[in-house]
Amino acid sequence: MSLLNDIHKIKDGIRTKRVSSYDRTGGNQDYVTIPAGETAVLADIPGAGIIKHIWITVNTLDKMIRRNAVLRMYWDGETEPSVEAPLGDFFGQGWGEEYNFISLPLAAAPAKGKALNCYFPMPFGSGARITLQNESDEPIRSFYYYIDYEEHREMPDSMGRFHAWWNRELTEVHPDAGENEWSILAPEGKNPSDANNYLFADIEGKGHFVGVNYFVENPGPMWYGEGDDMWLVDGEDWPGSLHGTGTEDFFNSSWCPNEVYMHPYFGYARVPDKLGWMGRTHCYRFMFEEPVYFDKSLRASIEHGHDNNLTLDLSTVSYWYQVEPHKPFPAFPAKEKRQNMPEISIPDVHLWRHEWRQALGGGTRLWGNERKEKPADDTE
After folding, report:
1. Same domain, 155 and 195
2. I want to staple 42 with a disulfide (CB 3.0 to 4.6 A). Which of 7, 36, 130, 351 is the partner?
3. pLDDT-derived band of residue 109, with 50, 70 and 90 as boundaries?
């Protein structure tokens, strides 16, 4: 179906409007300032309508403002936000970074990803409110934005409300098996459950899931993506009606990719340039052709390594539409809980090598692929 199919149709009862940061005096200071610790109301729109486009760019001394500023959206007078995420993560920018990102509903445009764009349609029947909380210690010296929307006479009940939820977890491994990916340490285990997976959706109500931005920081060089995606719809038991075969498979790629690739629906907007897959990778998938429908609930998760055997810093923003009311999100993590993990450096890897050398007796010509000899089997 072409995106231009309806562009020729003349419609009644719709008016295009915009809320923006333009200089009300007629001057060129077309921005607002947001002091440290304060929350700005970007839009407070009455009546019915659909937000069609949001554009934002930010100027501040805080290099982590994209994690330290929190975007929230409320529909129809609700008190619990339907959208709650760090500013950067919502627009597909992980770790407070700035980099170019291209997809159909979200984009970070030049210069070098500084222009944040959203094209998710966001219907509302009796008001829309959008806020930005500056939790930085620095003021946002200039915050430029457009919020383009349609004003409608009314909004049909069939129009779901847009939702987005940010989650983050430093994942744990099995204490007895360690980080046993690819069976390097022992035979691999089995995971007949989603109980220990990384959770990226926990929804109650009726609606459909349309996409996820997935940000993984890997402290080691091992491939992070043997984990299966698992979806339990309307309270069904494991393995559920949708069960995947690997992380890169869910993101529509294959064979442990480590290259930038951006399709309108899926891709890799950021990949590491280190040893193996060590470092930060941003994967995304938007399921506009195959949304996941649910009538009562949806629990969506993914393994962090096969059988959840890798320590990873995982964060996600999930996007869906549903009938209100929605299940309130968990308490939003404090700013201190949203900061990046320390970067694994070349000296860190050298220290690992030193410990490995000592474990093998401190030999003076150890190359790096030697293994401890297994104890002899003396049973007869």
Report:
1. no
2. 130
3. very high
